[in-house]
Amino acid sequence: MSSERNTWKDRCIYWIVAAFGGWCRCLPKKWATRVGQGIGLLYYYLVKKRREIALGNLQIAFGTDLTTLQRRQICKASFTNVGKTCVEFLRFPKLNAENIWDHVTVEGRENLYTALEDGKGAIVFLAHFGNWELLSLVYGALIPDRAKAIAFPLKNDLLNTYLWRHREQLSLKLIPRNRAVRETLRALKNNQAIGFFADQNAGPEGVFVNFLGKSASAVRGPAVLALKTGAPLIFSLCIRQPDDRHHVYISPAVQPKPTDDFERDVERYTTLMLKQLETYIHKYPEQWLWLHNRWKTQPTEDR
Known about the structure:
seven-stranded mixed sheet, single chain, 50% helix, 15% strand, alpha/beta
């Protein structure tokens, strides 16, 4: 009986999201963006737990450099960015490999092409910044059939299929987390680019680095794979513009050089990627996903 109720619940959630997505696609872009802004504000005011996490993160990152009012303003703007991103994501079916460039500019696309010239593939370190979902379409359009990304499947199969179809519509393919190692190694061997969203808490298994002034557990995968395969590391993120267009930045590739201290190497290259993210967080603090409990795992808890 419980299974039947869960199936019914999953179907209801799927149909609500699908219907809302269809409605958003019928609206003019400006109106849809305002709907997203409203959803973000509603989330900010109603979900106290996430609001408090975000404000706490801002306190950790900026300390006394910001007033209480400034932290609240950034927090609120971050929530509205999430709302806009959700609505823009639901409007992805309106985009294709040609008209996407009416909404997106790319800086550093030559860095991606250069990184793939050695035939070892490329590992792209991605961040939940601006409209991060748009990166799946951008990379799918930049290197057709040569872009992949690691993703966590949802338990709701109907909703998962719906969301993955949006992300994969311009040739990028998602790799389920439980097949990540094997599929990633195969993709790099085939000289493809693999995207990792690697800016969130990685738990006890992560590598501890200094991030925005405090020790944080970071995803080990990108640096480990780069060191073991020789694939170059690239940092990339999407920056929302004042007119709600988007600017994607792709950094010059970093070629890993292993030493006899593998763990130190993993820490060094992970830090190198996160330092680039720090630069953009300080420049556009309202565009990072502050509502995630980034500093939840600390070294003293696990060591």
